[in-house]
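Please review this pair:
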Amino acid sequence: MSQEILHCPQPFLLESGKIVPQLQITYHTYGKLNAKKNNVIWVCHALTANADVFDWWKGLFGQGFLFNPEEHFIVCANILGSCYGTTGPLSKNPATGTLYYQSFPDITIRDMVAAHEILRQHLGISKINILLGGSLGGQQALEWAILQPEIIQHLLIVATNAFHSPWGIAFNEAQRMAIRADETFHLNIPEGGRKGLKAARAIALLSYRTYDTYCKTQRETDLSKTDNFNASSYQNYQGDKLVNRFDAYSYTSLSRTMDSHNVGRQRHSVESALQQIKAKTLVIGISSDLLFPVTEQQFLAQHIPGALYQEIDSFYGHDGFLIETEKLTQLIETFLAVPVANR
């Protein structure tokens, strides 16, 4: 495994027309590019993940798993706007000499993909054999497959959509409201908005899991209890976990980026945009996903030429895309084993 940083001193033009004066991209690579340069696996990560895919997608990536460094050259880049090394709200603005905080410009999924493109070219990668991602990562993968249809050979997308739904946007706005209600967020200091971020994470969890998940994992056995419930403790615990590894400014920025996702923007229609994808595509839905319901993945499969739709029956809701690695492995192995001409 290798963690590296790509420094791009030239201005980075955003879809909005605004400019980030300098760009830094932190990324991980695993394994080696083979002589034919046809063993590249590129992973696009989700909202609060980082570039170390072996850490957060265990069971699918790593030694002895489907995507392993013995066979593949695996690349995962931290996304634009994050707080794990790539330029984001807690980076220094070279034009002012101070950190961006809330002045960090709004970015889109296409801006994230444009940064991936810079890194791809820097690494000398001409073809990506497999491009995959779930949730926000799937949104990036979709955009990339539309923007560069000749480069992506296989597209694997899980629990994602062609455009972010009003339901998803409403969840994100509720989280941002919680963050903005924390007065420290407006002080523009590194620790600003932490209480708001904790509340935001608690809201998000309700969309990541399901009623049945909570009823099983957080159920009470003490029938006399009137306070200090397991579910309450769980929400606080998960909120603290995120606060200890993330920041409110990046979270706010990235949630707005997710809201901006629409492959049909300036492309006539969503359907015509999806028709531009040439990669052999597997679309996977999670049966219990409340945030990205399976109708969204079925829509993708219907409009991406030749795409195959598969569904995982999971107890874990949206988080199933990170947890159900054995089921994902089985579906992906079967998909990749079928000759291209027969798909």
